Amino acid sequence: xxxxxxxxxxxxxxxxxxxxxxxxxxxxRPVLGLATGRTMEPVYARLVAMHREERLDFSACRTFNxxxxxGLSSDDPHSYRHYMNRHLFQQVNIDPANTHLPDGMAADLxxxxxxxxxxxxxAGGIDLQLLGIGQTGHLGFNEPLSAFRSRTMVRALxxxxxxxxxxxxxxxxxxPHRAITMGVGTILDCRRCLLLASGEDKASIVAKAVEGPxxxxxxxxxxxxxxxxxxxxxxxxxxxxxxxxxxxxxxENEPKWESxxxxxxxLVT
Length: 269
Ligand code: GLP
What we know:
10 strands, 7-stranded parallel sheet, alpha/beta
């Protein structure tokens, strides 16, 4: 795992967008894993701007989102399909047929989950998986007690998550009780993971995810087992780390981030 601390939420989102853009530019047939949530909105805004201003090309790209609420149709403004269409898919040159989210309206939800796994496998697996983190430490909707080897399945939302995400519904009681989510095992199979967290209210759970003991009570701790995982946070979300000086030193000195540092400098000069 590596941890990168950026000065503020926009700078953190810019770095994440830069990594995604590089994947799109260097991989002839990229398969992206995507995430929703307020944290991701500036990332998608940046990607849309790169598409418009720098011709960032999504035409060869296939996407798989982490999760979808059970019982919400794609035209429901609270569904993750609606979120993705609005924030990214309708604003870039991606073929809608190449965008995948689990179908929360499927008559047979277990069959839908198995089919989602099959589609990811048929696409050759996910190259780069974007991740947020909820207050319970969930990835997707892998709430406490989710097995690290779990695959795409239906999960009940914890009361904490229903409260956290309920504020996005006009009536918070109308937030669904269940969602389809990639499993922790599905996420760990992705070739690279990229977690973004911003804001002070994420500081405690991010510190547990990165520096705490590995436990299925906090599914994000599973990322400590992933061979290629980058965690990007802003200063506010970095507030509870014990080893932040070390993370800063690594980022400033690692040769692999040289091209990012140069890109940043060329923007400043
Ligand atoms: C939802 C999603 C998660 C996401 C989380 C964070 O619960 N299922 O994948 O990480 O929201 O949301 P926000 O960025 O709004 O804090």
